[in-house]
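Problem 12. The chain below contains 328 residues. Write out its predicted structure in token notation.
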Amino acid sequence: MRRFAIFFLLFVTALPTALAFQDIPQDDSHFLALQQLQEMNAISGYPDNTFRPEDPVNRAEIVKIILGFYEGKEPEGEDIYPRLQAFKDVHPEDWFFLVVQKAFRLKIIQGETEGAKTFSRLQFYPGRFVNVAEFFQMLFKASGITPQSRTSYADLPPKAWFTPALAYAADLGLIHADAQNKIYPARFLTRGEVADILYLFTVLKHGKDVDFLLAQANRQFNFIEVAMQSGKIAAALTASEFALNFATQASKVKPQYGHAKAFVKLAEGYRLLLQAFQAGAQGNNDSVKTLTDQAIATATAAWEADHDVQPLARHLKDRAREIVGQAL
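Solution.
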């Protein structure tokens, strides 16, 4: 394994910009999501400069995150229910008071009732961890989307309040069913998972912005190189799939755009390189030869589609030759 990892120390052409979160290094699987959300001023961490991606997120935090995602800042000022308390358990002295008040005014949240359904009896339960069903219901309400889907899942009853939102989220690829075709609507989400979902949702919202899509694909390329240095092959492969999806979408928007076509080929080349690396680590030399030949051909196709990508296309070819040279 070590012999096949050495060449990737030379495989870095551009490092991602470091984040403000000291617990999110550049090879962390949540890095690119947080980088994008941070640039949008859509997310923040804790006073100790950590993000704590494995921690569950509570209902107060998720409201702040969703509002920040759409507005790029927290609500402020006395125009947001300055005196009228929307929920019995959310008080003016609470740090989340304004964000919860605004989310209620925008009908993103509605709370739960105790006894008679009167305004003063509503409860929000701000400290309760948010589950998958609640999160997507809030997210789509904030976006103005009325989710619709004809896809069925084993644990989404047809008439359940959360079924349209979760089936639609699965259709978009924001969540995935398991082998039993289950979504698990009551499962709690971590802060890292929320960041990843919002990042993918951002890309979907920019689905016709070719420049944005290709910029994100390029970030995935850079992340692949950093992840490989750390031996995080699975994370690098996931990044190659994202890069390929983003570049493919850009190519669909502009079918004749050579730069988009080239990025599709580059993404395919990265994926082939990573597969060759895995094959070499497993001692499967025949597969290494096949995969590296394909990577070289794909890099050539990228250069033919757009000469501007020649440096990276050459880079991929050189790395492919290094891998096969070590295997044979």
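Discussion. The chain has twelve helices and two strands. Students who got a different answer should revisit the alignment rule from Section 12.3.
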